[in-house]
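Hello forum,

I keep getting stuck at the same step: I have a sequence, I want structure tokens, and every attempt I make locally crashes halfway through. Rather than fight my setup again tonight, could one of you with a working pipeline run this one for me? It's a single chain of 240 residues.
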Amino acid sequence: MAFFVKNLRPISALPLLRRSAVRLAMLAGAVVLSSCGVGGVKPVQAPPEPVLYGWHDDGGPGKVTVRISLPDQIAEYHRGDRPIGWSYVATGKEGHGTRARTYRIMEKIEDKYSNKYGWIEDELGNVVDGDAKVGDRVPKGMKYVPAPMPFWMRLTSYGIGMHGGLIPEPGKPASHGCIRLPKDFVPLVYDVVQVGTPVTITYAPSRHGPVSPPPNQQLATNNGATPLGSPSLPSTAPMP
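Reply #2:
Ran it on my machine without issues. Output:
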């Protein structure tokens, strides 16, 4: 960029105050021009997503068991006496606490929806009530949508089970009583458990936490595993 000025006197010929003003103006112009250069300010990178699970099932002998620590909100998975993975979970929040005891999986349904909880959305699909229940009044022109519970593994006769869902704050309860597993991880667990698989929910701390894989064995995590399909839901909607 070039500037052309006629009859410009040398700066040294100007009075002191005017010389100072001219130098300040030239400095400001240089700053403005330099800000137009290539590169500019580096974009701020978003923090990495937290690791929600690890999985390294060897597929060998032994029955699968599940142990869930309520204070840590971590599930540990074993095949026989061998650890095969871990994950964060979200159990029942205050007022909807998940009871500590040993359960057994009673049924498995890959594509299930809640018969208690959901949300209300308008005709454009916008969620207007993210914590609705069956029987709530639905305004005219809107509809009630039951919450999806993909890869459902029932633990009780009164509607408590494990299923895929949101883990909004790893380490903190968030559900209406069910045990949510990370949505892109739950199919791995669903595939290896059976009706009758024991699931122990305890107030004891996690014994292992994030588990390291055996040598030379691939570890699947949410930072590298291929996401697997499950019913979608709005990010503002509740889950059981």
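The two ends are 63 Å apart (CA to CA). If your local run keeps crashing, start a new thread with the error log.
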